[in-house]
Specification:
The complex is a heterodimer. By secondary structure, chain A is of the alpha/beta class. Chain A has eleven helices and 13 strands. In chain A, a hairpin with a 2-residue loop joins β1 and β2. By secondary structure, chain B is mainly alpha-helical. Classes of the chains: A alpha/beta, B mainly alpha.
């Protein structure tokens, strides 16, 4: 299995706002990589940087082993993307829109081939209708067809279910699963809904305020027997160095002081830190990732444990 | 580049708003032709009154060539609005519609996309002027017939013989194409800077109006500015109807207009290459 995307120390500043802060992650071939975070967490900015829509302030992006900064064209030949709502050209029919994006992708297709693509997303019967007459869900599916028209190896979907009704959400979910299972695509799917991502993602990354919180296989992250421990000390760097050289090293999760370990070990962790002179200002066990994520995504009760 | 240009042209000519410009020009030209057809002689008498007291003028003065000249003189300063209508929408319209981000996730680079949009804007400008030429020149000749062209300027009068006119119109339309391409480049630059389609259109028209006022006002304070304003040189097409033709002035004006195009397109390219696409 090869690495499709490798992101290292990615940072983006907009004037005084830091939208993405020193973010690193890796996406392997065949992953359905869930990219989770509340609105404004930096998901869209990160995905736009992966597509060269936004220039990073610093950091490095490699896709298919090539640097995006120097091989943009070669990389984008292998990438399809739907960024938020795909607003297509309303004065073109569905088929004409698809023809435009096929040509732009360097793969001009005949009508029969375009109709086949529309069939995949269930729009063949509306191929000759102007997209101005399409529903939100249909536009979303047409956007997906436009992203898939050149048969890319990697598909990047930013909030693909936003604005869809329950049936539309279910259709989109099934489509994503089918693309992964049947067409062997690697997908990066962002969402602010854990419930949505956990159904489709094989691996996931949670970010908050532009920083990575946790990254890992969905099955492990969502394991209810694990307790996610959020830690704050008077000297986080020293605490991290101490933990990295201790039996708790394997439990360290992400760049910040987050550990995943059985709940019974939490008192021992506290005793270990205190015995080594680390003054703990906060030690907060969460029963599951979902518990933590729900708190993270509820602005009214947001405790911002990782704000720096 | 060619596939991108084809797509851009396809988009321009599939949008209903594109045809508003063609209809507007047709309506304006037909109205003038109708007015001059019904009562053109009075208009000519009024225009020539300073001469008829001293000279005896006879012949087919109100002919198709003169009508075309009147149309150009009246409307060539209104055409920038119609150019801005399409050019101002080229990038900003895509940004507002959400298609710009989709376009830029495809392999062609930003430079290529901008070049295709610039070329498509140029093709649209040429189409609009060819349409105007067809209606104003061909239409007027068909309705009013041919004849020598008599043009008044200040206290002088130029008389151009019928057989010596067509090349001048061809040259004037070519010059007008360069002048209108400056407007298209300005609108495209504003379009890059904006994320809604109306802003660049209004901004372009405002700049053209303000600079035209500065170019035409006889106030010494503005005299030093005038040689550098593109609006001063946009009327250079009239030189082709003078005797003798002031080639030096025309070439200088054309050069300044081309320089404007290069600078505006260059600045637009520099900004677009670095712009974060947030729409």
């Amino acid at each position: 299995m090869s690495t499709v995307a490798r992101v290292r120390n990615l940072t983006k500043h907009f004037d005084t706002l830091t939208a993405v802060n020193d973010l690193s992650f890796t996406v392997e071939e065949g992953d359905v990589y869930g990219f989770l975070g509340q609105n404004g967490a930096g998901k869209s900015t990160t995905l736009r940087m992966l597509l060269s829509l936004i220039r990073p302030s610093s950091g490095n992006i490699e896709l298919f082993g090539l640097s995006l900064a120097s091989h943009r064209r070669d990389i984008l030949r292998q990438v399809g993307a739907v960024i938020e709502q795909p607003e297509l050209y309303p004065f073109f029919t569905g088929l004409e829109n698809l023809r435009v994006f096929a040509r732009l992708s360097g793969k001009p297709l005949r009508r029969a081939a375009l109709l086949e693509q529309l069939e995949v997303v269930g729009l063949a019967s509306r191929a000759d209708d102007k997209t101005a007459t399409y529903s939100m869900g249909m536009k979303q599916r047409l956007g997906l067809a436009a992203a898939l028209v050149h048969d890319p190896a990697l598909l990047i979907l930013d909030e693909p279910t936003n604005g869809l009704d329950p049936q539309g959400i279910a259709d989109m979910r099934n489509l994503i699963l089918s693309l992964s299972r049947d067409r062997k695509k690697t997908l990066i799917v962002s969402s602010h809904l854990l419930s949505e991502v956990q159904v489709i993602a094989t691996r996931m990354l949670i970010i908050d305020r532009g920083r990575k919180i946790v990254e890992g296989a969905s099955a492990e992250l969502l394991n209810p027997s694990d307790t996610l421990v959020l830690l704050e000390t008077e000297d986080d760097a020293a605490a991290r160095a101490l933990l990295a050289g201790s039996p708790y090293a394997a439990a360290l999760d992400g760049r910040y002081l987050t550990l995943r370990l059985p709940g019974a070990e939490v008192p021992s962790l506290n005793a270990f830190l205190v015995s080594h002179g680390v003054r703990v200002t906060r030690l907060e066990p969460r029963h599951s990732l979902e518990d933590y994520f729900l708190q993270l995504t509820a602005p009214a009760t947001h405790v911002a444990p990782f704000a720096h | 580049m060619w596939p991108l240009l084809r797509i851009e042209l396809w988009k321009i000519f599939r949008k209903p708003r594109t045809y508003i410009s063609f209809l507007a020009i047709a309506a304006m030209v037909w109205l003038i032709q109708l007015g001059l057809y019904s009562d053109g002689e009075s208009y000519i008498r009024f225009g020539m009154q300073s001469l008829t007291s001293s000279f005896d003028l006879s012949g087919h003065i109100l002919n198709g060539y003169l009508v075309c000249y009147i149309i150009l003189q009246t409307f060539l300063m209104q055409v920038p609005l119609l150019i801005a209508l399409v050019a101002g929408d080229m990038i900003a319209g895509e940004a507002a519609g959400g298609t710009l981000r989709l376009l830029l996730t495809k392999p062609p680079g930003r430079g290529q996309l901008l070049a295709a949009k610039f070329t498509a804007t140029f093709v649209y400008t040429v189409s609009l002027l060819v349409w105007m030429a067809l209606l104003a020149l061909l239409g007027s000749v068909l309705i009013f017939g041919r004849g020598d062209l008599m043009i008044m300027r200040n206290t002088e009068m130029d008389l151009i013989l019928s057989g010596d006119i067509l090349w001048r119109y061809f040259a004037a339309f070519c010059f007008a194409t360069v002048a209108m391409t400056v407007v298209g480049s300005l609108a495209l630059l504003f379009s890059i800077l904006s994320e809604n389609a109306i802003g660049p259109i209004v901004a372009t028209v405002s700049v053209v109006i303000v600079l035209t006022i500065l170019s035409t006002m006889d106030i010494p304070f503005f005299d030093r500015l005038k040689p550098y304003l593109f609006t001063t040189h946009m009327l250079g097409w009239k030189g082709f109807f003078y005797s003798p033709v002031p080639w030096r002035d025309i070439l200088r004006s054309a050069g300044i207009l081309v320089a404007h195009i290069v600078v505006l397109a260059g600045v637009g390219w520099g900004i677009f290459k670095r712009k974060d696409i947030l729409s």
